[in-house]
């Protein structure tokens, strides 16, 4: 079969020559339309199952009568290779040849000719395959739904939906369609084209709320270039929300107003910088001590400062003293401070001029001196004592030791006996001594190393404890009660008193500096507030006899008249008793203990006596 | 006893789920021994066919724009009519309705195999041109590879459906199939080949879709 190509080329040439021939006379007549011969105007298929061809007679009006011109076609790929005439000339439409399903074959080349049957002239010819002339029908059921409106209310998004043309058999797969959506503002001229869509819906974003839009859609076969007609347009418009729109300028105003205010504030701050600084950050007052010129502080005149400080009463009570004797003590304290020039060691060893009546006279006053600086209740907490005590411990030590040493110089035992007697009546004098009841160290065996201040003050501690007991009996706090009770348990024994005195005696008698040093040992670990530990400290017997220790000892009880305030801990033994150790070898100073532990008995651990246990023991 | 039954059912349930998941997962990951259902295979084949058809059309258009001067372009730009019949295929809806599923699938396979062989010639011919755009060559190569994978998929599908694979060997060169005079230039010949290939790619896509429709029980698919 001759190629359509060459035929078409010939046809084109013929056309040209024909037109060229005709234009001659036509140009003379000045006819605007160039004369044309009959030709096909188009061949189209809507659904790939049928197709139509139209033609026009052109200038050959005499051929416009039906039947003057005929369409013949030839199909390739079929057995029948001859020419056939148009199967059906559409009755309603002029110059249309309709090929129904029977005559429509896709993937088949068609060759269609427009002939003048009378004269056997072929005016036009076309070659095509049906799938290449498919122009699908427009989609149907186009509608839109609002997706959302922007926060500013200026823009909105819509979802456009449609259905494929009913004539196209998409479901079976006979045709695969692609859709193109176009939209434009109502009064616009240019259409916005969206990308080809395989599905039947599409979202359009960023439309303006103040405009009305026109949307339309058309389709084509996939990978073909022939679009069908456009569908009917739908009009899209979203009602404006006036409040939102009017809000915008208000917000702008607010923003600008805020910015202006900020600027104003900045200006104010900058201009009044100094004043504001003074108000916001008041200057720190220079250090001031009453009676002392700040100049002294600045220039570092230490000696003058020292003298000044000494002259002043540094330790003044913050509040009105509760007891009248505090004031009394205060005054005495001043005198005492002036005289405390010797070291503690010297005091302990009695190397200083202890024989001064000062010491004795001061015995009773020592407490007062110290008490002026301390809250009477502070004595209950041993750990709080060390830092404050340092100032006055030499004083007390000196005084207490002076008394002690003084007494011991005569007869230790007598002194030992004497002191308690002396001490006992002046219960008050011991009250303040508790501040110095410092356990310098606790030995692994459970023994307690006391500093001289402590030793001397332990009785005061006891008394203070006793006083505390009285105080605390009024207290509701369980801890205090328990503590008091526990303390009392331990302390309330004649032995306790005597033990303290014994300990003091021991310390005093100990000529070796070692003892003194030991005595001066400060607690590496502050005694725990836990009554148990404290109790342990009290109760723990000391293995090392040379270590000063104090434990409730009954033997002195026999020596000393029984004191109603202190009950005697009779026995500690086994796992449920309070054991009372006999005195150490140095205890030869002390009267023999009536109750003696077997030498091999292990020392009680510090925490031996549990609070619960002690509770049981309490009366 | 009840507990045992319950356990048994649970076990079966878990095994089935595992089996399903396993098969799905295997195929997703690309396992060697994964099993795909007929539907999945068919969908994959249709995807291939759609892509191949689209790229073939792009290739043809590009070739036309690059090599064929405007004067020689036909009215429609297609030289489909020059293609010879590789094998008789239905050409209308009614004819398609008269052939069997088996034949549909086999004809697709034959077409695919034909063009795998002949695209090689086309590529060789394209290489001879002086100013062939690289994009064009890449596209033809891509199409060849996709055709081969489509062939594999089709073979698997046919075996799955338990049909015997019809062997159709056509080793004649494309020149024999083109009813074109030898005076035609190489360019036109290649263009014709591309057009024919495009047409056949469209055939492949349509047949596969029709076949898929037939697998469903939708009444519109099986017709007169």
TrEMBL record, chain A:
Residues 472-483 have a biased composition (Acidic residues). Residues 452-462 have a biased composition (Polar residues). PROSITE patterns: FN3. It is found in: Membrane. Residues 503-519 have a biased composition (Low complexity). Its main location: membrane. Residues 138-241 form the Fibronectin type-III domain. The chain crosses the membrane at residues 247-270. GO terms for molecular function: cytokine receptor activity. GO terms for cellular component: external side of plasma membrane. Residues 1-20 form the signal peptide. It comes from the Eukaryota. Keywords: Glycoprotein, Membrane, Receptor, Signal, Transmembrane, Transmembrane helix. It is a single-pass type I membrane protein. Residues 360-386, 446-484, 503-539 are annotated as: Disordered. It holds the Pfam family fn3. Gene3D superfamilies: Immunoglobulins. InterPro entries: FN3_dom, FN3_sf, GHBP, Growth/epo_recpt_lig-bind, Ig-like_fold. This is Fibronectin type-III domain-containing protein. It comes from Electrophorus electricus (Electric eel). The gene is ghra.
TrEMBL record, chain B:
The gene is smtlb. GO terms for cellular component: extracellular space. Belongs to the somatotropin/prolactin family. PROSITE patterns: SOMATOTROPIN_2 (PS00338). SUPFAM superfamilies: 4-helical cytokines. It comes from the Eukaryota. This is Somatolactin alpha. GO terms for molecular function: growth hormone activity; growth hormone receptor binding. The keyword Signal applies. It comes from Electrophorus electricus (Electric eel). GO terms for biological process: animal organ development; growth hormone receptor signaling pathway; positive regulation of growth; positive regulation of receptor signaling pathway via JAK-STAT; response to nutrient levels.
């Amino acid at each position: 079969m001759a190629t359509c190509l060459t035929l078409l080329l010939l046809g084109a040439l013929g056309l040209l020559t024909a037109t060229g021939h005709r234009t001659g006379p036509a140009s003379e007549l000045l006819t605007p339309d160039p004369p044309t011969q009959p030709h096909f105007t188009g061949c189209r298929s809507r659904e790939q199952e049928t197709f139509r061809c139209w033609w026009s007679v052109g200038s050959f009006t005499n051929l416009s009568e039906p039947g003057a011109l005929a369409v013949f076609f030839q199909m390739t790929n079929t057995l029948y290779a001859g020419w056939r005439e148009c199967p059906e000339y559409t009755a309603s439409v002029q110059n249309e040849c309709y090929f129904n399903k029977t005559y429509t074959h896709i993937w088949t080349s068609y060759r269609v000719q427009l002939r003048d049957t009378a004269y056997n002239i072929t005016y036009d010819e076309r070659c095509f395959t049906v799938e290449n002339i498919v122009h699908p029908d427009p989609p149907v059921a186009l509608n839109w739904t609002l997706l959302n409106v922007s926060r500013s209310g200026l823009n909105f998004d819509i979802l456009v939906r449609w259905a494929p043309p009913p004539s196209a058999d998409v479901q079976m797969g006979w045709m695969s369609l692609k859709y193109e959506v176009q939209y434009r503002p109502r009064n616009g001229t240019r259409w916005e084209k969206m990308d080809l869509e395989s599905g039947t819906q599409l979202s359009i974003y960023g439309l303006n709320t103040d405009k009305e839009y026109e949307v339309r859609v058309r389709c084509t076969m996939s990978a073909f270039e022939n679009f069908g007609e456009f569908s009917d347009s739908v009009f899209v418009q979203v009602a404006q929300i006036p409040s939102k729109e009017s809000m915008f300028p208000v917000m702008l105003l607010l923003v600008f107003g805020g910015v202006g205010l900020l600027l104003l504030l900045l200006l104010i701050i900058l201009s009044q910088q100094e004043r504001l600084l003074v108000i916001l950050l008041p200057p720190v007052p220079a250090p001031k001590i009453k009676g002392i010129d700040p100049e002294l502080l600045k220039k570092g005149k230490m000696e003058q400062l020292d003298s000044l400080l000494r002259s002043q009463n540094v330790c003044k009570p913050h509040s009105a003293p509760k007891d009248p004797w505090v004031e009394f003590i205060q005054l005495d304290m001043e005198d005492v401070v002036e005289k405390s020039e010797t070291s503690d060691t010297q005091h302990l060893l009695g190397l200083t001029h202890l024989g001064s009546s000062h010491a004795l006279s001061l015995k009773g006053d020592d407490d007062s001196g110290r008490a002026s600086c301390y809250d009477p209740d502070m004595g209950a907490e041993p750990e709080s004592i060390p830092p404050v005590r340092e100032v006055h411990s030499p004083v007390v030590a000196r005084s207490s030791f002076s008394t002690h040493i003084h007494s011991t110089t005569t007869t230790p035992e007598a002194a030992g006996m004497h002191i308690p007697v002396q001490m006992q009546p002046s219960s008050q004098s011991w009250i303040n001594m508790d501040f110095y009841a410092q356990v310098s160290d606790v030995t692994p065996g459970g023994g307690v190393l006391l500093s001289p201040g402590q030793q001397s003050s332990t009785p005061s501690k006891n008394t203070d404890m006793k006083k505390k007991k009285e105080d605390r009996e009024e207290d509701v706090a369980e801890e205090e009660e328990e503590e008091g009770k526990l303390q009392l348990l331990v302390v309330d024994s004649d032995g306790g008193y005597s033990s303290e005195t014994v300990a003091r005696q021991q310390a005093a008698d100990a000529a070796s500096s070692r003892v003194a040093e030991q005595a001066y040992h400060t607690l590496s670990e502050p005694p725990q507030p836990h009554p148990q530990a404290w109790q342990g400290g009290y109760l723990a017997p000391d293995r090392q006899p040379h270590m000063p220790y104090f434990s409730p000892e009954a033997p002195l009880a026999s020596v000393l008249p029984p004191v109603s305030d202190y009950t005697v801990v009779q026995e500690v033994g086994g796992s449920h008793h309070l054991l009372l150790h006999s005195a150490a070898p140095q205890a030869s100073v002390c009267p023999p203990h009536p109750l003696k532990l077997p030498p091999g008995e292990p020392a009680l651990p510090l925490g031996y006596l549990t609070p619960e246990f002690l509770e049981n023991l309490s009366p | 006893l009840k507990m045992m039954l319950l356990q048994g059912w649970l076990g079966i349930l878990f095994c089935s789920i595992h089996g399903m998941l396993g098969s799905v997962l295997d195929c997703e990951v690309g396992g060697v021994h994964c099993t795909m259902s007929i539907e999945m295979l068919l969908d994959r084949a249709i995807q291939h066919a759609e892509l191949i058809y689209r790229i073939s059309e792009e290739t043809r258009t590009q070739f036309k724009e690059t090599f064929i001067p405007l004067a020689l372009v036909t009215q429609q730009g297609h030289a489909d009519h020059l293609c010879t019949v590789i094998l008789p295929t239905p050409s209308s809806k009614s004819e398609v309705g008269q052939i069997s599923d088996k034949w549909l699938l086999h004809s697709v396979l034959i077409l695919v195999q034909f063009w795998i062989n002949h695209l090689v010639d086309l590529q060789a011919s394209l290489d001879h041109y002086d100013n062939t755009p690289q994009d064009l060559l890449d596209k033809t190569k891509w199409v060849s590879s996709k055709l081969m994978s489509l062939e594999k998929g089709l073979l698997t599908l046919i075996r799955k459906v338990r049909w015997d694979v019809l062997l159709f060997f056509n080793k004649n060169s494309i020149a024999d199939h083109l009813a074109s005079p030898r005076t035609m230039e190489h360019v036109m010949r290649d263009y014709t080949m591309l057009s024919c290939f495009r047409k056949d790619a469209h055939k492949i896509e349509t047949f596969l879709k029709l076949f898929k429709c037939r697998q469903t029980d939708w009444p519109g698919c099986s017709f007169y």
